[in-house]
Structures are given as C-alpha cells and as structure tokens.
C-alpha cells in the first residue's frame, strides 16, 4: 500500500508541474482563453486546445467549425454557438504572442499528451489501491466517516500499517508526530508544540482531512468551535486543528479495529456533548 501511495504522490507531483506549464503556455500565447473556459481541464476545453490551440487557429476555423468539432467529439454540456462566439471574439482581440507559433503548437501538444497520460496512470493506480483497500479488514468501516474517502484511508493505512500492531490510538498519535511537548530551556518556560518526530506524510494527510472535516462534518465542526471558543483555556485555531487530528486518529482506529460503522452520536460522547450544550 505504501509503495502505491508513494507512486501516487510522485504522479500527482508530475501532474501539477505539467498543469503549471500549461497555465504558463496559456498566459503567453492565449491569455484570454480562461475567460472562455474557466476550467481548462474540462472535456470541451481539452478538445479545443487539441484542435485550436492558438488564437489564429480559432479565427481560421470559425465558429461553425468549432461547434462541429465539439459535437463530433461528443461534447454536449455547456458548449454551443454562444460559447464558440465568445471564443472567436476573444481570439480576434487576443494579445498573446504571435511569434514561434509552430513551436508553440508542438509545445502545448506535448504538455496535453503528458497531462492525459498522467491522469490515466493515476486513475489506473487508484483502481489498484481500491482493490487492495477492500481486502483490509475495517477499511470500509473507516470510509463510513462522512468526508473521509479512499485516498485518506489508503494514505492513513499506508503510513501506519496494520492496525492490529497497535495497542491504542495514542501510539499512532506519536507515530504521526502529533504528541505535545514543551519547548523550554533552563528556567524559561516555552510554548507547547507538537513533537514532529514522526511521519510527515501522515501528519500532512491528517491535517488535510481535518480541514475538510471541520468545514463539512457537523460533529467535528462543533468540536472545533468548542475548542476555540470555550471559556476555560480556549485553543488557537492551529492548536484546535491538532486536537481535531488526534480525534480523527482515535475515530479511525476505533472503527478500523472494531470494524463498526461511523455513529455521529458516539463521536462526541455524552460528556463532550454536555460541554458543547453548556458553551452554546
């Protein structure tokens, strides 16, 4: 699992670099393009870039030919004569570079080929990951948590390994470098921070998941609000996110080891629920 997820990280890094190069190309040769297609990664946009990459290609082809090309490639949503008219108008008034157009076409074609290849490789790799995750006891139960999907669970298991090798969730907290320690020297009492003596990829994955949970999961959102607004010892937002990460570890460990579905009522527990009601 770890090998596959490491491969995914490398492929995603390569994909982001290719995306950056395509953005750079558009800024140089067709800066108005994103005014027509805000998301250049959509199907209609990719077909347009493949067939009419430069403003002069758009003008030469004309609106009718552009619409026909979209229809021929089975693009039916959100494109039609009005979008073609807008693209044609932007191309006519484009301030993009007009020199070296042959090399520019070749450059973009190469980037688009790399983009499609990397997307396909990531998709194929994630199919392997999904099959592997299905074979791991408790993994499907971990994915029953709202806002937690395949990538998070696969990444978590890739970093921590078999959950049966842990006696309690606090061991995973230490493994992630999220256990607290005090930075002090001599008589000076320093701030309490996380140790960071663990797997940085696991820590980063948990922080990304925690951000999503706080934004979209009602229980974790309520917990974050309580941590940051309680009367006694309110936490700063970053400190609260660390606490949320640790809570997420405990929930994942509980569901994975006991192989039970997520229950929103049990996430907070009666004691914490009473605290939340008192703070409301």
User: How is the largest sheet built, in terms of strand order?
Assistant: 1-2
Sketch the major β-sheet: 2 strands, antiparallel
Helix content: 55-70%
Uncertain runs with pLDDT below 50, 5 residues or more? none
Order of helices and strands: HHHHHHHHHEEHHHH
| Structural class computed from helices and strand pairing | mainly alpha
Count of β-strands: 2
Overall pLDDT: 91
Describe the structure.
There is one protein chain. The protein has 13 helices and 2 strands. It has 280 residues and is mainly α. It folds into 2 domains: 1-130, Helix Hairpins (Orthogonal Bundle), CATH 1.10.287.4070; 138-278, no CATH class. The chain has a two-stranded antiparallel ribbon with strand order 1-2. Helix 6 (101-134) packs across helix 8 (150-160) and helix 10 (200-216) crosses helix 11. It starts with a helix and ends with a helix.
Sequence-ordered SSE layout with sheet pairings:
Blueprint: H1 2-29, H2 33-36, H3 43-51, H4 55-72, H5 81-92, H6 101-134, H7 139-142, H8 150-160, H9 170-175, E1 180-182, E2 192-194, H10 200-216, H11 218-229, H12 237-258, H13 264-279
Antiparallel strand pairs: 1-2
Helix pairs in contact: 1-6, 3-4, 4-5, 6-8, 8-10, 10-11, 10-12, 11-12, 11-13
